[in-house]
Inverse folding.
């Protein structure tokens, strides 16, 4: 899959070791198991596979799953950027405590998260009662799925952005400021391109994790056919009927859709990264000047 | 940190952004967490404490810790190797490779468990051979480790790739051209540069390894006191109408997930102290240390 | 991989295989059965010690019934299975792990105790819910049940409503489907499991009626107190049977056939039956039932065998993809 005679840039060692180890580990732990699963569906006829994958219920569940995941990932991308920025740049009391809390959605078992969120957003819950007055129902609707997914994927964007923002060299911003750029110009034209790859990574991770999430969602979704059934629930439903092949077929469909979407996002990210890298060679002030010039800002 | 007048946002922007960030975190993070603790302590500290003393809860805790401890070294080694190859070198198929590394996230945990059943189960590809040699993979520790490795696979790598990419190759190249060996370069230049990113990756992977439910649930067998991890124990307690026990165990997971974070805070604090002594400069954040230390104690 | 990893793997394998060489039994069971077997296991351990002088250790595994059956088929080494619906044992029989005539190897259809589906309503029964047809009136009440396709609890509720409709004058499959369709239209959501449906009804206070196992009502009282709800017994309900079976392949391999048989048989002893009754499950023994009569009001029930021709057939007609449940939701 990857050409052995890869182009080696510069003088750095460890390419063969790094890539070799990566490929071996990836193959053993991910590629062989996933291939096994795809092979397993080979026991089905193409017609059966298609009928399972394109049934009305399945199509509705893809819409719910991918739609809610996209929504949750987008919300997390926007607020995650603000949170990461604030956590790195601005001092405020209790900052470290807040910083520590960000990882908790991963440690908490997803079922507990789902149960708690459903209780909070139910019509008699702490949050739900206020929303009910506005006529908004969250628990047991597709909106509830989005809320659960925001919670379980919250750490991704924040944690991928934090080290990169911490890493921004002060000279870049100072140079931009010296060159007369406004703060907003500096942010959008100098800083944002630098953190964009990491931002997109965070978004991608949140999105892909959301697609597969099951444990928290089923407690708050309401699980009504065609309305709030997610694809992983349909997979479970098939397993409950001992239809392991059918379950695997849905899993393969999800895998293929996710793979294509992730590939597109990753290609986009590398494109953005290499564009940014072009302006990154050389020292920081020149970098900022380049960026501003490229963006057509003030010279 | 130095004050950056020329490069800082206006005061109202800073206040607004801080308010937005804290508001978001409060609504989607803090409030649910308060609710979990609220349930756990609904009948007082004594009931909470008793729930944690139960034998099955303790063995579940031990198993959870053991699995996390066994899984993390693999993920770290893989993450660093993959990030090194991907971030520092150009080769064809790089996006494809990154996508394949991401893939385990998009696989539903239930499916992740199912995959290993298909491979190692009694009706699976390798099942008959394993049975003939009396080797147990699923419904035993190895299967649970495999499932956890799978679901935590991308964390470290994905945390490091954008960071290493942003840092570029210059420093390492300088080190090598000055005559450093590969390992010297790695230990003295690369590792110090990526340590925070690596730390975040490890923290996330650790939290997820401990909290994982779906995949492990499929391959565990749910034998009480033997193959139940803490998240599985939580679900069983809940299903048995022991809500306090369930939420108490969940808060333990929250604390365990924080252990690595506390370690990070301590390291960070010590390093800051050292720099302070060197520069005799008082950073504005100094007054905020106590709250974070408070998270150590349940 | 490296040396370290193979070392770990070896340690893991040793841990997995060497841990339980002594006389022990693994009982793979459904979710809420923990209390029953937690109390039953010491009774049996004592009984076995008195009878043979041997010390035996009973290990328990609990999760969703179908999930457990799949795990046993995939290699979980259960000596005995104690399930909450016959489909799960049928599946194991199909896979050759359990005798095909398992239901005849023990008395009472191999089900040592039973339960039935009842209604939990708000205190004072403000909506006046007395029977299944009160729930089927369009828009009159809100019904809370776990997912009828994915959970044992939900399936029993669905089949109970269906059976009730069949037994009405002029009832046939068509009227029953219509009845159950109306009944489901009153469900604003499906719980992910029996426990989840209970939380939604009791704690989040959604819905007017919760349909669940009679035995669950006592657990609800334990968790939420007795003040907030009432139990209503409908005019007719379904008999929920909890089949037990020996996993032939495993007991042959482990040499635990005698022990496994004794373990299951003892469920029908006076002690075993009393234990079931104390855990709010209806004992088969008429004397024990009489003793605990106050906890078990008489109720007319039908079995799945007589109404639907067996669990496997019922599951195929109603819950398989494209079955009546899917048809009801496809019509919308």
């Amino acid at each position: 899959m990857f050409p052995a005679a890869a182009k080696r840039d510069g003088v750095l060692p460890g390419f063969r070791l790094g890539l070799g180890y990566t490929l071996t580990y990836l193959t053993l732990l991910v590629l062989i198991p996933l291939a096994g699963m795809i092979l397993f569906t080979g026991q089905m006829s193409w017609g059966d596979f298609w009928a399972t994958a394109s049934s009305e219920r399945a199509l509705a569940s893809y819409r719910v799953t991918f739609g809610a995941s996209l929504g949750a990932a987008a919300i997390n991308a926007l607020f995650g950027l603000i949170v990461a920025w604030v956590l790195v740049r601005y001092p405020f009391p209790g900052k470290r405590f807040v910083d520590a809390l960000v990882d908790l959605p991963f440690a908490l078992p997803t079922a507990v998260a789902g149960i708690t969120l459903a209780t909070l957003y139910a019509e008699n819950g702490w949050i739900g009662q206020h929303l009910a007055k506005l006529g908004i129902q969250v628990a047991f609707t597709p909106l509830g799925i989005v809320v659960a997914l925001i919670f379980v994927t919250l750490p991704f964007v924040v944690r991928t952005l934090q080290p990169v923002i911490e890493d921004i060299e002060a000279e870049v911003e100072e140079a931009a400021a010296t060159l007369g750029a406004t703060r907003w110009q500096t942010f959008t034209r100098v800083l944002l391109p630098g953190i964009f790859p990491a931002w997109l990574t965070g978004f991608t991770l949140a999105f892909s994790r959301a697609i597969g999430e099951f444990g928290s969602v089923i407690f708050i979704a309401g699980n009504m056919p065609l309305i709030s059934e997610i694809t992983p629930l349909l997979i479970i439903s098939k397993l409950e009927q001992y239809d392991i092949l059918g379950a695997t077929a849905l899993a393969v469909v999800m895998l293929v859709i996710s793979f294509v979407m992730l590939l597109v996002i990753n290609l986009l990210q590398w494109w953005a990264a290499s564009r940014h890298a072009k302006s990154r060679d050389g020292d920081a002030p020149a970098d900022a000047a380049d960026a501003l010039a490229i963006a057509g800002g003030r010279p | 940190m130095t004050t950056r007048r020329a490069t800082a946002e206006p005061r109202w922007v800073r206040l607004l952004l801080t308010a937005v960030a804290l508001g978001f975190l409060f609504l989607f993070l803090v409030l649910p967490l308060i609710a979990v603790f609220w349930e756990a302590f609904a009948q007082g500290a004594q009931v909470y404490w008793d729930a944690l003393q139960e034998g099955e809860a303790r063995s579940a805790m031990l198993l959870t810790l053991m699995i996390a401890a066994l899984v993390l070294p693999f993920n770290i080694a893989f993450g660093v190797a993959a990030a090194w190859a991907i971030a520092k070198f150009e080769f064809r198929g790089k996006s494809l490779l990154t996508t394949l590394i991401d893939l385990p996230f998009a696989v539903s945990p239930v499916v992740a468990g199912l995959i290993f059943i298909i491979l190692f189960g009694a009706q699976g590809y390798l099942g008959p051979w394993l049975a003939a040699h009396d080797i147990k993979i699923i419904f035993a520790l190895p299967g649970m480790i495999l499932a956890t490795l799978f679901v935590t696979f991308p964390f470290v790598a994905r945390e490091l790739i954008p960071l290493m990419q942003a840092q570029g190759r210059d420093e390492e190249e300088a080190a090598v051209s000055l005559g450093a060996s590969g390992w010297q370069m790695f230990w003295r230049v690369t590792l110090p540069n990526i340590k925070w990113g690596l730390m975040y990756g490890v923290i996330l992977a650790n939290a997820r390894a401990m909290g994982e439910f779906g995949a492990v649930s499929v391959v565990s067998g749910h034998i009480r006191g033997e193959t139940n991890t803490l998240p599985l124990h939580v679900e069983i307690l809940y299903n048995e109408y022991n809500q306090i026990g369930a939420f108490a165990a969940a808060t333990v997971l929250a604390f365990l997930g924080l252990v690595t974070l506390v370690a990070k805070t301590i390291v960070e604090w010590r390093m800051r102290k050292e720099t302070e002594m060197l520069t005799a400069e008082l950073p504005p954040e100094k007054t905020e240390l106590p709250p974070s230390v408070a998270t150590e104690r349940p | 991989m490296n040396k370290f990893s193979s070392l770990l793997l070896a340690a893991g394998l040793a841990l997995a295989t060497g841990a339980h060489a002594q006389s022990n039994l693994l009982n793979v069971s459904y979710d809420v059965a923990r209390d029953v077997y937690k109390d039953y296991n010491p009774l049996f351990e004592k009984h076995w010690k008195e009878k043979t002088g041997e010390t035996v250790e009973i290990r328990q595994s609990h999760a969703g019934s179908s999930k457990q059956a799949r795990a046993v088929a995939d290699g979980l080494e259960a000596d005995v299975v104690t399930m909450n619906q016959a489909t799960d044992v049928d599946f194991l029989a199909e896979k050759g792990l359990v005798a095909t005539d398992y239901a005849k190897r023990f008395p009472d259809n191999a089900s040592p105790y039973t339960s039935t589906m009842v209604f939990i309503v708000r205190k004072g029964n403000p909506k006046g819910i007395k029977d299944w047809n009160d729930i089927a009136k369009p828009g009159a009440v809100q019904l809370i049940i776990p997912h009828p396709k994915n959970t044992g609890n939900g399936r029993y509720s669905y089949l109970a409503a269906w059976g009730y409709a069949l037994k009405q004058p002029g009832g046939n499959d068509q009227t029953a489907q219509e009845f159950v369709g109306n009944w489901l239209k009153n469900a604003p959501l499906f719980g992910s499991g029996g426990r989840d449906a209970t939380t939604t009804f009791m704690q989040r206070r959604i819905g007017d009626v919760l349909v669940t196992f009679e035995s669950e009502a006592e657990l609800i009282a334990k968790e939420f107190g007795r003040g907030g709800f009432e139990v209503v017994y409908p005019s007719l309900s379904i008999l929920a049977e909890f089949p037990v079976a020996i996993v032939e392949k495993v007991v042959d391999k482990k040499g635990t056939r005698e022990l496994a048989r004794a373990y299951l048989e003892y469920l029908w002893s006076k002690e075993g039956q009393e234990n079931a009754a104390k855990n709010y499950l209806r004992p088969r023994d008429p004397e024990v039932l009489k003793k605990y009569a106050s906890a078990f009001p008489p109720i007319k029930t039908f079995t799945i065998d007589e109404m639907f021709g067996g669990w496997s057939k019922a599951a195929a007609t109603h819950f398989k993809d494209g079955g009546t449940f899917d048809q009801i939701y496809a019509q919308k």
Summary: The two ends of chain C are 55 Å apart (CA to CA). Chain C touches chain A at residues 1, 64, 66-67, 70, 91, 147, 149-151, 188-192, 196, 199-200, 203-206, 315, 319-321, 326, 329-330, 332 (CB under 8 Å). Chain C is about 50% helix and 15% strand. Chain C has two domains: 3-112+242-295, 115-240+300-330.
